[in-house]
Design brief:
The chain contains nine helices and 14 strands. The chain has about 270 residues and is α/β, with parallel strands linked by helices. The chain has one domain (about 5-265): Ribonuclease Z/Hydroxyacylglutathione hydrolase-like (Metallo-beta-lactamase, Chain A), CATH 3.60.15.10. β10, α5 and β11 form a beta-alpha-beta unit.
């Protein structure tokens, strides 16, 4: 069967993704209530009790809101690097010592037939990470909450079969939007979020003939729209690729519902 996944929710109000192989199921982040995460997993015919691990990207509330509750309810192991654990301790309540698992940035671990590798990203958190998932010759990459796409990030996610890539905001919508300037400056900084334009430019450097689909993720509800994100990323790609170069299909994610299961072995 290989890798399959669903983005359960994506955006500033909450983020979670489930990744599975034939014998393994992991949850990446739990940025909604435990009840909501439970419900979304059930929609995908998965019981949270059957999860092998919860992987944490960073400690911001939209990624860990339900983490403590769901980990305690189902006695699940939680994986994060040491600095993220230090930041989490004040937010998620008690987690049993044997369920507090340290996975350092850059480390790779096997969960059954699913190999998971973390990598460092630029964001205003303690030590934020993205993840790449491998099964045999399949590769899925998650890259959100990026202030910018560094060369190291590009190297890490390049040549993926499928990517979940941040396309957070339209720069002009953000500039004229209702946020105070200090928040706008933070979002636009190298420790903030990736714009539609930056996502499109970066995608040109990491997309190969192997890349089938790219899910545009973590869209701002105030300063972006799905159609605009898709159009802008597509335009950036078209401007930089020759006519015969490969173009992956751009896919949507949602803040209020899960994406359909995606299997990496499907064209």
């Amino acid at each position: 069967m290989g890798i399959r996944f669903s983005v359960l929710a994506s955006g500033s109000t909450g983020n979670a993704m489930v990744v599975a192989t034939e014998d393994t199921k992991v949850l990446v982040d739990a940025g909604l209530s435990a009840k909501k995460v439970d419900s979304l997993l059930k929609e995908k015919d998965i019981s949270a009790a059957d999860l092998d691990a919860i992987l944490v990207t960073h400690e911001h509330a939209d990624h860990i809101k339900g983490l403590g509750a769901i980990a305690r309810k189902y006695d699940l192991p939680v994986y994060a690097n040491e600095k993220t654990w230090d930041a989490l301790d004040k937010q998620i309540g008690d987690i049993a010592e044997d369920k507090r698992c340290v996975m350092q940035t850059g480390e790779a671990r096997d969960f059954g037939t699913l190999r998971v590798e973390s990598y460092g990203i630029s964001h205003d958190a303690a030590e934020p990470v993205g993840y790449c998932f491998y099964n045999e010759d399949q590769k899925l990459s998650l890259a959100t909450d990026l202030g910018y796409m560094s060369e190291k990030v590009k190297e890490q996610i390049r040549d993926s079969d499928v990517m979940v890539l941040e396309s957070n905001h339209d720069i002009e919508m953000l500039r004229v939007g209702r946020y105070p300037w200090n928040i706008k400056r933070r979002i636009l900084s190298d420790l903030g979020h990736l714009s539609n334009e930056a996502a499109g430019i970066g995608l040109c450097d990491v997309m190969t003939s192997r890349t089938k689909r790219v899910y545009l993720a973590h869209l701002s509800r105030d300063h972006n729209m799905m159609d605009l994100a898709r159009l802008t990323v597509n335009n950036m790609v078209e401007e930089r690729l020759c006519e015969d170069d490969h173009r992956a299909e751009l896919m949507d994610t949602y803040y209020d519902r899960a994406t359909a299961w995606d299997r990496l072995d499907e064209e």
